[in-house]
Write a structure and sequence with these properties.
Length: 134
C-alpha cells in the first residue's frame, strides 16, 4: 500500500470512531504526519470528552492509547521544523494556518497524497496539485 500524509481531522475521526472511520482506516496502514498531529488529536480526544461529552474518561484514555500505539507503526512522525519554511510560504499564499500548511509541505516534499476531512485543507492541497483522499 502506498504511503499517505494524514492530517489531524482524518486521524481524529479514525481514533474517535466518527462516521466513516472504517473507510479512513483503509488509508492508514502507512501514514506519515508532522509530529504535532499527536498533540492535535490528543486535544480532539479531550474536546470529545470534556466539551462534547462524546466519550467517557475511560474511553478517552483508550482512544489515546490507540493513538500512541499507531505512532511508529502505522504512523510515522516527521520533525515539523524541517517543513516550517515551506509551510509558512504555503500559509501566506493559500490562507491556511501554519499548522495545516505543515501537512501540505510534507505532502509536497514527499510526493504523497493527503488524507483530510477539512474542506479548507482540501482546497489548498488541490491548488498546490496535491492529490487528496478520500
Amino acid at each position: 500500500m502506498t504511503a499517505i500524509v494524514v492530517d489531524a481531522s482524518a486521524l481524529a475521526a479514525l481514533i474517535l470512531r466518527e462516521e466513516g472511520w472504517r473507510e479512513l482506516a483503509k488509508h492508514l496502514a502507512h501514514a506519515v504526519s508532522p509530529e504535532h498531529v499527536v498533540k492535535e488529536v490528543a486535544n480532539a480526544i479531550w474536546r470529545a470528552t470534556r466539551l462534547r461529552g462524546f466519550l467517557s474518561e475511560e474511553e478517552a484514555w483508550k482512544a489515546y492509547a490507540l493513538l500512541r500505539r499507531m505512532v511508529g507503526r502505522n504512523l510515522l512522525l516527521e520533525p515539523e521544523l524541517r517543513y516550517l519554511d515551506k509551510a509558512l510560504e504555503i500559509s501566506m499564499k493559500q490562507g491556511v494556518t501554519v499548522y495545516d500548511a505543515l501537512y501540505l509541505a510534507l505532502a509536497l516534499e514527499k510526493g504523497l497524497p493527503l488524507l483530510t476531512l477539512d474542506e479548507g485543507q482540501r482546497r489548498a492541497a488541490e491548488a498546490l496539485g496535491i492529490p487528496v483522499k478520500p
